[in-house]
Amino acid sequence: MKLFDVVNVEDALSIIKSTFIQDLKVESVNLVDSFNRYLAKDIVSDINVPHFRKSTVDGYAVRFEDVISASTSNPTKLKLLGESQMGQVCKFDLDEDECVYVPTGAMIPLNAHGVIMMEYCDKLNDKEVYVQKNTLFNENIVEVGEDIKEDEILYKKGHLINERDLGVLAGANIKDVLVYKDLVVGIISTGDEILNINEEINDAKIKDINAYILYGQFKKMNLNPKIYPPVKDNLEDIINLMKQAINECDIVLISGGSSVGKKDETLKAIESFKNSKVFVEGIALKPGKPTIISSVENKLVVGLPGHPLSCAFVVESLIKPYINSLFECKEDKYIICEFEYNYHKSKGREEVLAVNIKNENNKVICMPIFSKSSTIKQFAKCDGYIRINRELEGVNKGDLVKVYLF
Ligand SMILES: Nc1nc2c(c(=O)[nH]1)N[C@H]1C(S)=C(S)[C@@H](COP(=O)(O)OP(=O)(O)OC[C@H]3O[C@@H](n4cnc5c(N)ncnc54)[C@H](O)[C@@H]3O)O[C@H]1N2
Ligand code: MOO
User: Fold this and answer.
1) Are residues 197 and 137 both part of a single domain?
2) Is residue 202 part of a domain?
3) Ligand nearest to the CA of 260
4) Ligand 2 atom 4, closest CA
5) Checking DSSP bridges between strand 251-255 and strand 299-304, what pairing results, if any?
6) 253 C-alpha to ligand 1 centroid (Å)
């Protein structure tokens, strides 16, 4: 493996983006099933929400000019026409010195200017009300289309539907939603020392950690991860499992065996496929250098470093931005924090550094966690990470940095 010939992260990402333009399939699902799915087309509202003028309080709908001088010491007497019923079209129109009782959410008369809360009114009898307050135009009223306008684009293609969006879509009478079918991501762990979840720990063997982190990472991206049982460092076994995974999945990730050790078989396995092409053998990322980017049978096959933290950061740095670009998603959110440490790095490789954040003296500060890439617990507890440009020689205490939150 040519690990000296490493490729910058941005260049590696460009290669992936330009080579693997996924043929995304779409399906129509019920509104509830669109939760956490990516939209396959823009959604436009056919209706105004609300489609009628409604009151936001329990009170009396009035005209501006009739109550202009109303106050507690000088209440205005209005004729009560009746009550607007919830869910019914309001059948009243206001004339001079008239009002209508409207409960919260009910339709108000078309020509009412405002609704005065009942706390400011005194109902004398079924026909008369004293109003102790004037009204502003549109006070306590939601106008037609104030929430959602007819023909408004509610969401663009690629948007990931969240729980609040479900409410918007329900309100806009959208019953079925066209979404992208989930991409299936195959996860293969390799290594003579790797045990699957049901095997007892023995000798110098360890449990498969990477498959489970990767599973969580892809679930969080709302894809469909599929864990295969770990495979030993045996070329034929790796090739056979790869064949199965390539057949069953849209993207295949193979962790371990990407480096230069004599048993590192991932590259050989990839190259054994007739229809394969290796684009990258090592990226300028720390941790994460031993990463292979290849195409097998026109599918993206990535060899990930075996160290769990490195494996996870390659996915964060390379695969997640690619997935985001496929679905036209927004970039990951970050917060700006003050770095609390003088951190030195060598030029030439981008570095990803896990950090914890805290509030101190009204400032949000962050501190790196010093965790070896072969360990996992500290990493699991951290709040996020920063990326240090390959040209930089470090970050100084007091520098402002972007922290990408997990
Ligand atoms: N001579 C060199 N040695 C190493 C280099 C190097 O450049 N020259 N790079 C180091 C770095 S950095 C990393 S990262 C690892 C990557 O190695 P591989 O991708 O080939 O992975 P393995 O050798 O198979 O495993 C490395 C390490 O990770 C553990 N591992 C592997 N898979 C899993 C898993 N599914 N769950 C938990 N832990 C896993 C494995 O047991 C090893 O301890 O290479 C360095 N060496
Ligand atoms: O790159 Mo290794 O992936 O530094 O731990």
Assistant:
1) no
2) yes
3) 1
4) 287
5) parallel
6) 15
